[in-house]
Design a protein that fits this description.
Helix content is 38%, strand content 14%. It is an alpha/beta fold. The longest helix has 20 residues.
């Protein structure tokens, strides 16, 4: 099983080496902005490397939104980041599930996710797999609750949508991590990537605050996180505080080898 970390985008390969990681995830543009991604300066090195690459899309993208000024640039942003991700040999583009506003119909958000894939299918599909990630909070979120994820997959499953399981988000949303992998797989049929994060907050808090797998202020038993990774059998990325990532990766790798 390949294990690595989310790192700064300036020198991801050096960061991977520093952490003894076999996987690396990073942004290709400002995660809080709408800028079009540009060619990464390490493109050739990334393509030639044995390190597996995943790209995370900006947080501002909200494909589900009923607001045209958000939804339309979000659709364009997903396509742009997928194209850019392909240029560095990425295995997938992680996209948060998004949400609709209070008093808006969540079904409309699900329909907008389907339209994303339908419209891109007319252009030959996305350049890399789109990995939809579960989120921690939001009453009208598309991927906070397992029941809503099941409804979402009725709209997007046929297009080959992938899934990224974030353990902090799941824990914060009130999922039982002991059966989370099985329940997700029963809905999506797949888990393509695991964001193996501890949580600074208690179970069901709906707060998205990551902690290191070990040695920090996490509230999830590290052995439970290892069990999730083992059952999922997918590449693992820790999105934890940078100073503890090397220790997180070492712990998870050794625990999985037991």
């Amino acid at each position: 099983m390949q294990i690595g970390a989310h790192v700064r985008d300036d020198d991801p390969l050096a960061a991977a080496r520093d952490r003894d990681g076999e996987v690396v995830q990073f942004f290709l543009a400002d995660p809080q902005g709408w800028k079009v991604p540009v060619a990464h300066p390490q493109t050739e090195e990334l393509l030639d490397s044995d390190v597996e690459v995943f790209i995370h899309s900006p947080y501002v993208l909200n494909v589900a939104s009923l607001n045209n000024r958000i939804r339309i640039p979000s659709r364009k942003g997903v396509a742009q980041h997928a194209k850019a991700a392909a240029t560095v040999g990425a295995k997938g583009l992680v996209v948060h599930g998004g949400h609709v506003r209070k008093d808006e119909d969540p079904v409309k958000g699900l329909e907008n996710w389907r339209k994303l894939f339908e419209r891109q299918a007319d252009h030959g599909g996305f350049d890399v797999p789109i990995l939809i990630e579960n989120t921690a909070g939001g009453d009208n979120a598309m991927t906070r609750e397992l029941d809503m994820i099941a409804r979402l997959w009725e709209y997007v499953g046929e297009f080959g949508a992938g899934f990224c399981l974030d353990t902090c988000h799941a824990f914060a949303a009130g999922w039982d991590l002991d059966d989370a992998v099985g329940r997700v797989r029963s809905i999506t049929g797949r888990i393509d990537l695991v964001h193996l994060n501890n949580s600074r907050d208690e179970f069901g808090s709906t707060r998205d605050r990551h902690a290191n797998v070990i040695g920090g202020d996490g509230t999830i038993d590290p052995e439970q996180l290892v069990a999730v990774a083992k059952e999922a059998g997918a590449p693992v990325v820790v999105e934890t505080p940078a100073e503890g990532q090397a220790a997180d990766i070492k712990f998870v790798r050794e625990a999985l080898a037991r």
